Amino acid sequence: MGVFDVVGPVMIGPSSSHTAGAARIGLMARNILKEEPIKAEITVYGSFAKTYKGHGTDRALVAGLLGFMADDVRLRNSFEIAAQQGVDITLQRSDIEPNHPNTVRIAMTGRSGKQMEVMGVSLGGGKIEIREINGSAVALSGEEHTLITVHRDLPGIIAQATTIMATGNINVSNMRVFRSGKNAMAVMIVCTDSPVPEEMVQAIGKIQAIDSVVTLLPL
User: Fold this and answer.
1) What is catalysed by this protein (predicted)?
2) Label partner for 96 (CA 20 to 30 A): which of 43, 69, 173, 199?
3) Average pLDDT, the chain
């Protein structure tokens, strides 16, 4: 158990799960999109849907999408800042009972027109988990250096990607592959002890059947 588990995160707002966790989900979503969003459709479920105004969950989610950390004082005015920056934000509540009470789904459009949808949950103490990327089930905590690929599920794709990382002496601490079916679209999440250099990211992106590659720094 670390200090973070005992004292919780440094944050703006009353709740580590509903405020700090929400800000981290928004920030993780922005990082996965890998560009500045110009539009975000946010759907909150469960406890998030019932208490989002009182706990500032809505403002925290928007703050994260703007690139703000949970302890950034601008969190309180995130909706106003989003409007000033021309970011179109819509938020709605869902009555569907989620698997986890603190659940949010964010559909984003970036300035280039790129679209991405993520679903995340706040686990408490500021910790989060991204559980879906573009409809594919994943498990992403954001606590390590991470490389994510979206690719077609074909033989040899994973081996080619990990071989490129091995040539650069990148040590893999954890790797999981999620797929919707044989030869369908898949998501590979590779956690590493150090960041993957940009030239390796570009080389991995050139592998046949890989649609996109994203690298994330620890939150």
Assistant:
1) L-serine = pyruvate + NH4(+)
2) 69
3) 90
Treating both helix axes as pointing N-terminal to C-terminal, what angle do 198-205 and 157-167 enclose, rounded to 10 degrees? 160
Instruction: With beta carbons less than 8 A apart as the criterion, state whether 164 and 200 touch.
Output: yes
* Residue 13 reports pLDDT greater than 80: no
Chain segment 134-154, per-residue pLDDT in tens = 988 899 999 999 999 999 999
Asked if residue 46 is part of any domain, the answer here is yes
Is residue 4, in this structure, part of any structural domain at all? no
Q: How many domains does the chain have?
A: 2
Read off the pTM: 0.84
Task: State which of 81, 108, 138 marks the end of a domain.
Answer: 138
Mean local confidence (pLDDT), 83-106: 94
The whole-number average pLDDT for the span 31-46 is 95
Percent of residues, the chain, with pLDDT higher than 70: 92
Residue 198 and residue 159 share a domain: yes
Q: Confirm whether 70 is domain-assigned.
A: yes
